[in-house]
């Protein structure tokens, strides 16, 4: 017996779209029907929907006043300088493509710190929270996040970042529960000492290599 499903039987069942295709679908949707343009510091132009921006970020609510008819495409400046890749990642996040997924599949994914800076300036807290949860602290960005900890932030974001910074610091120094109670200034000072020691060690190894060659 051949079983067939009618349209009515399948209606209401959402199609399964591979996650890797979601980002491309968002690009196509925005490019075809967006009514505003965001301008990047590198001269790039990015189309978006005013309704999405207004609902997602308070910064755009002030720019997109009710007096604007929406008939003509409106150019919008950003509160902080941002490259094209940073803006693109930010916009996709507003449209529902998770930041973590973009980081996994993106070829030219920007630094999370740059995306966070833009999202924070626009007041897009949902994007900021995504970033701190998928953040991986490393030697390349730990100083940036320690400086970030010196400022006031939303409690859920602050605690998530501090936990990851403390975990990284523990792995770089002798583990101790005391790290959880260190202030950002203390972390910064200790990390600078750690960096100084690393540079001294590399210089010593380099000089030893030259000595062996000379012999």
From TrEMBL:
BTB domain segment(s): 34-103
Pathway in which the depicted protein is active: Protein modification; protein ubiquitination
InterPro entries xrefs: BTB/POZ_dom (IPR000210), SKP1/BTB/POZ_sf (IPR011333)
Lineage: Eukaryota, Viridiplantae, Streptophyta, Klebsormidiophyceae, Klebsormidiales
Protein name: BTB domain-containing protein
